[in-house]
Design a protein that fits this description.
The radius of gyration is 22 Å and the shape is elongated. The longest helix is centred in the first third of the chain and has 15 residues. The protein is α+β, with helices and mostly antiparallel strands. It has 2 domains: 79 residues, Alpha-Beta Plaits; 46 residues, SH3 type barrels. The strands form 2 sheets. A 5-stranded antiparallel β-sheet has the order 8-7-6-5-9, with no helix packed on it. 19% of the residues lie in helices and 31% in strands. It starts with 6 loop residues before the first strand and ends with a strand. It is built from 3 helices and 9 strands; from the N terminus they run βαββαβαβββββ.
Length: 149
């Protein structure tokens, strides 16, 4: 007998309860013998779980009566989108004091500045913005070196 192709669905849950709901759904699927193949807790998508199942009918039985599930109607997700969520973690660029950098994300995206201090333990960097003459603390992965020091 041919195996049924997996389908992925996003389930909306109470923000901050994703881990608990994932464990609860895992336990329910084992106890009820449901065809749940995987449950993903995306880091970037707060308030959502991705559930891989053989058929959409399984989700009804899986989520019925679960307290922290907000909407009972799951949203179909393409497999490519799930794989994009599981991308490898990118290593933060190496920057040093006095180096010219460009900010590539967040509210200061596109601005340039000089590195004032690098906090390796917190993975943050203090940048003195050239346009506004102010110092801001930015996550290290949101800066791109422009010149090598």
């Amino acid at each position: 007998m041919a195996e049924v192709k997996s389908r992925f669905y996003a389930i909306h849950v109470v923000k901050g309860m994703e881990g608990r709901v994932a464990l609860l759904l895992e336990e329910r699927s084992k106890n009820m013998g449901l065809d749940v193949r995987s449950i993903v807790v995306p880091v970037d998508a707060n308030g959502y779980l991705i559930v891989e199942v053989g058929s959409s009918g399984v989700l009804y039985h899986l989520t019925r009566g679960v307290r922290y599930v907000k909407r009972k109607r799951p949203v179909a997700v393409r497999e490519e989108d799930v794989l994009r969520l599981a991308k490898p973690i990118v290593e933060a660029p190496k920057v040093a004091r006095g180096q010219l950098v460009e900010i590539i994300g967040g509210p200061f995206k596109g601005m340039k500045g000089r590195v004032v201090e690098v906090y390796e333990a917190r993975k943050d960097v203090d940048v003195s913005l050239l346009d506004f003459r102010m110092v801001v603390t930015i996550p290290l992965e949101l800066v791109k070196p422009i010149e090598q020091k």
